[in-house]
Amino acid sequence: MAKVTISLDSDPAIEVMLPAGTRCPQDAVELIVRDCLARGHRTEARACRAADQDRLADRRTAPEEGR
């Protein structure tokens, strides 16, 4: 996997390190980014399931046409 280098001031790096429980700013930022991505995927999956349920519910309650 390709690596990306990002420069960051020390204050935000330390603020990320403390809740992440790491001693390396790079590890802390990586954990935060991975968590953010995973949360986005979970939200997307939840939203898609809800949209599918609404779509299926509409199909079940709609009267059939042509009869």
Plain-language structure description:
By secondary structure, the chain is an all-alpha fold. It has a domain at 25-58. It is built from two helices and no strands. The longest helix is centred in the middle third of the chain and has 37 residues, at 25-61. It is elongated and about 70 Å long. The mean pLDDT is 78.
Helix tally equals 2
* E-strand count: 0
Q: Note the gap between the termini.
A: 58 Å
Task: Report the helical percentage.
Answer: over 70%
Largest sheet: none
Structural class: mainly alpha
Identify the quaternary structure here.
single chain
User: Can you tell me the overall shape?
Assistant: elongated
Query: What are the secondary-structure elements, in order, as H or E?
Result: HH
Pick out the low-confidence regions. none
Radius of gyration: 22 Å
Q: What is this structure, in a nutshell?
A:
The chain is 72% helix and 0% strand.
List the helices and strands and how they pair.
Elements: H1 10-20, H2 25-61
List its salient traits.
67 residues; mainly alpha
